[in-house]
Each structure stands twice: as C-alpha cells, then as structure tokens.
Here is the input.
Amino acid sequence: MSLLEVRDITVRFGGIVALDGLSFSIDEGQICGLIGPNGAGKTTMFNVVSRIYQPASGQVLYRGNDLVGARPRRLPLLGEVPFLGHQVGVPAHEIANLGIARTFQNLALFPSMSLLENVMVGAHSQGHVGFGRAITRIGTAKENRVTRDFAGDLLVQLGLGPLMFRPAAGLPFGTLKRLEIARALAARPSFLLMDEPASGLTHGEVDELGDTIVTIRDQFSLTVLLVEHHMSMVMSISDRVVAMEFGRKIAEGTPFEVQSDQRVIDAYLGTGV
Here is the structure.
C-alpha cells in the first residue's frame, strides 16, 4: 500500500518551472531514492512534502490524505467551519504531528548545546505539557525525564552514546550527520525525508551511513525518501528509485531498472555506472 502518492505536482517560481507534472509513489516500509542532476527539482519536491512550498497544481497524498489541497479552516471553539474560508494544505508546523520528519543538506544543529540537548529539541513536537505549563515548568519533570531517556537511547543506538554530553561544536562532520538523524528520529516519525545525508562524508563514512539508514528503517519501521548523489549508496540500499531531470520524472523502478535506463544514463549516470 502506498504511504505517499505524488500526483501531477507542478511548482513554478515566476517563469521557471521547478516541478513539471511530477508523479510517483512510495510503499510503506520502502527506501525510495530520488536522483537527478543539480537543478532537477529534488529538494523542491522535499519542500512540497514538508509544506515549505505550495504547488501550483497536483496532489500529495499521505496515508490517503492530501497534504497540499484546500481544507476547512479550524477555529478555536468552533472546530472546522468551511463557510468562513479555506486554508491551503496542511501547515508546515503540523507535519511532524502526522509522522513526517526531515534531515537537511546543510546541518541545522545548535553548536553550543550538547548532543543530548540537540536530540531532545527534536522531540518537542511529541510533548503533551502545553504552552502554559512549559513556561511555568509546572508538571514538566516527568515528561522531560522521559524525553531525556529516549534521546539518550537514540544516541546510543547511533553510536553516539559516549559523546552525548559533549557540545556539538567541533565534532567531526560524520558525527554531526548522525546527530541530525537522531534528532529527526526523536520526533518518532513513520516517514523520514533525507536530503543528501552523505554530503561531505568520506567513502568509509558513506558506506557506514548506508548501513545506518537500512538499520533505522528496520528498527523504527520507517519509510524513507532519500535524495542523494552517491549513486553506489542509493542503488545498494533503495527498494525503488525515481530519476528526475528538469522537474520531470524520466524513470522509476528498481535500482537495476533505473540505472539500466538509457534516458537516466544520458541525463545523469553516464556509462560508468
């Protein structure tokens, strides 16, 4: 069954068409690689799913619900009142509540905070204390303790346990990449978008990251959408691959099918793969 279904998504920036009728689907539990040359529209697609960009047309169905289409406006006390106007799509701040998390190509960590504190920040969307009690710190001790224990467990599982009380500043890039994955997992997602997680890593670190992605997929029952330029990693861990060029899909299928497609070879892979 498809967890995510992208239907004819088009995104325009002025006269530039960043996505041009893009369609593909991802089944639950799959790792799907999204590949293509720079400027193909891969990160734009991530930003549509994350609700940073609103497409000009099309649908993004997550568990059958459209993330980008019009829906009734919800007002305090009144609930959903469609006769008072509509808002477009799910707001970005509600995406985590749906079970969607994301890592970024450029690290967005807090350098002065410890690794443990960085991961605890990622769990904030799952809190139940509420704004007023959070400010006054009334009744927050139990939830903070549970969050702290869960964050510590994530760091241990990703091999960062001995560093959990160290500040993020000054640590190797590969370590910080794993930290960002831990922070994304702290939101307890079922669908994880990973934007070039291997960028800046050594060959050995890329191989290790590939193993980590498969492990967390299995351990946390995740579905993963992966944008990555390291083709050896993408092809070795993906169940399905979608190839893009100039905002359009040019191929979709198993890693073998996609890397054997002449259109993909001509547009991106070349003859060396």
Confidence is low (pLDDT under 50) at residues 80-86, 128-138. The longest strand covers residues 2-13. The CA atoms of residues 259 and 269 lie 7 Å apart.
